[in-house]
Amino acid sequence: MHGSFEGFSPIVLNILSGHASWFVSALIVAQLFFIVIMKLFNRSTVSLVIAALLSLVAVYIIGNSESAYYYEADLWHVNEALLGFTVMVIGYLFSKNEVAVSGKLFSGVGIIALVIMFMFTKCCMCLYDIKAIFAPVTAPVFSLFFFDLIVSVFLLVGIFRLLPENKVLVWVGQRSIAYYFICGGCPFVVAELMNKIGFSYAAYWQVPIVYILVCLLSTTIVALIYRYTRILKRP
């Protein structure tokens, strides 16, 4: 593959191969795949479920580095995108049935059950030293990895639903897709600027400063995107 791009700078090569920011690359591919499936099969729930199951099989075969068929090139992080697509489908199905599901899933008993399942998966991982690393997916026990992923997401959603509404979090959440797309570039820019002025990251107190600067830069860019462009639909 590298021979095909001979003469290109490493930065251009990373962008063309989708490796400049694995999270953004995977998000783009997953979103495009989701849109294509929705368009081709007219939002069919059955088709989405089948596509999600096939994606999980593909992730297990080519996206898990423990597998003999692991795809090392991972252009545009298709491996991670397939897993992301499956999570998107679960989120879509949840949103369609939110009223029916929420009453049971996010009840007092439901939250307790999610906490127990969350602790169970973490104890198993610690007890048997099971590593679950994302990008690339490294999961010797893939079923436990995926179960932990889904339980963790629903537990976080359930906890945040219990909290009082916060206008700042609502604003950020409604524009989260824009934050995702710049989540690689903004930290890089801030880090480069801080390095220029000799910010050494030698103490823990320096980390919150950089985090705040990244948040401010990201929020400014997101606000400008929604204010002056039509790239994304305004909430």
Q: How many domains comprise the coordinates? A: 3
Return residue spans where pLDDT drops below 50 for at least 5 consecutive residues. Answer: 1-5
* Binned strand content: under 5%
Shape: globular
How many beta-strand segments? 0
Distance between the termini: 41 Å
Tally of alpha and pi helices:
11
Mean pLDDT rating = 85
Radius of gyration: 20 Å
Largest β sheet strand count, sense and barrel closure = none
N-to-C SSE series?
Answer: HHHHHHHHHHH
The level of helicity is 55-70%
Class by SSE composition: mainly alpha
Features:
single chain, 235 residues, 0% strand
Describe this structure in words.
With 235 residues, the protein is mostly helical. Helix content is 69%, strand content 0%. The chain has eleven helices and no strands. The protein has helices at residues 10-16, 22-40, 45-62, 78-96, 98-105, 108-127, 142-162, 167-174, 176-182, 185-196, 206-228. The chain is globular and about 50 Å long. The relative contact order is 0.08.
Reconstruct the topology from this structure.
Blueprint: H1 10-16, H2 22-40, H3 45-62, H4 78-96, H5 98-105, H6 108-127, H7 142-162, H8 167-174, H9 176-182, H10 185-196, H11 206-228
Helix pairs in contact: 2-4, 3-4, 6-7, 10-11
Summed up, what is this model?
This protein has 235 residues and is mostly helical.
